[in-house]
Write a structure and sequence with these properties.
The structure is a single chain. 46% of the residues lie in helices and 17% in strands. The chain contains three helices and three strands, in the order H-H-H-E-E-E. It has a three-stranded mixed beta sheet, with helices on one face. The protein is elongated and about 60 Å long. It starts with a helix and ends with a strand.
C-alpha cells in the first residue's frame, strides 16, 4: 500500500506540501502546550517578533507596525501586530 507521505506528495503542489509537512512536524514536536509555546516562541522570534513581558509596562514600547508576543505560564502564547 502507498504511504501517507507518498499520497501527500502526489496530491499537493510543492508549496502546499512544504506547508503541510512543516505543520505535521510542528504537531509531532509540540506534544504538550508547553512544547507548543516554546516552539511557537522560537518561530515568532525568528520571524522578527519582539518578546514582551506581560507584567511589565508596555508604554513607549509598542510602535506602529511592530510585531510582538508574550507568554503566560509557559502554556499560553499571544502574538500581535500594532
Amino acid at each position: 500500500p502507498e504511504s501517507k507521505s507518498a499520497r501527500l506528495n502526489a496530491a499537493l503542489p510543492e508549496v502546499q506540501r512544504e506547508r503541510a509537512l512543516r505543520f505535521i512536524n510542528f504537531l509531532t514536536a509540540a506534544v504538550t502546550p508547553f512544547h507548543a509555546v516554546s516552539i511557537g516562541s522560537t518561530m515568532l522570534h525568528d520571524a522578527g517578533f519582539v518578546r514582551l513581558e506581560e507584567s511589565s509596562s508596555w508604554a513607549g514600547s509598542l510602535q506602529p507596525g511592530g510585531r510582538y508576543y508574550y507568554t503566560r505560564c509557559d502554556s499560553t502564547l499571544v502574538a500581535f501586530v500594532v
